What does this fold into?
Amino acid sequence: MFSKTPRVFFTLLIQDIHLMKHLAIVLTIAALTFSQNASACDCTSNGPFLTAAPAAQLVGLVKIKKYLTFSQINGHQMPVSMEVEIVDKYQGPEERKTITVWGDDGALCRPYLNQFKVGSYYVIAFFPNSMITIDTIQKPMKGMLTTSTSDYEISSCGTYWLSVDRSRKHAIGFLASTQHSVALKQLKKYFKKI
It folds into this structure.
């Protein structure tokens, strides 16, 4: 009986060593995955457009004029800022006809701007650009992305933009739990009443 004990002990020890190796591999993979996602956006949805958008500083019917700056994101050249023409303002104090809008750089709670097609129309709720830092206000280095206090951003923590069907003059998207389309005139009236 005692002669089998060392064999059982070593068998269990070898199994424990294999288990520890597997556990170390699993923990390493988990740590790498967590560290890559640590800088990703994490926010709670503020709901559909009619619930979320009234909190924005500027809401309006806009046309995407052009992409301004690009950055390498996940191995692809992606637009990170764009020029937007305000066609019809629904809410907010903005008086300019053209504004600069910043999107996601891979870690912010903003949409990737490539989903907004140049020449297309949208109803978008904008917030003041939150990425103003001392580095972007001082003289930038060549190739550095610079922002301005007069720039805007779009949140992805809720529905803050709607596609526009210009032929029907309707905004389309997640407006409310049971509403996915509205006439542009009706939408503008909604924001004027707020």
Notes: Helices lie at 4-37, 49-52, 134-137, 184-193. The two ends are 86 Å apart (CA to CA). The chain has a mean pLDDT of 81. The first strand starts at residue 58 and ends at 73.
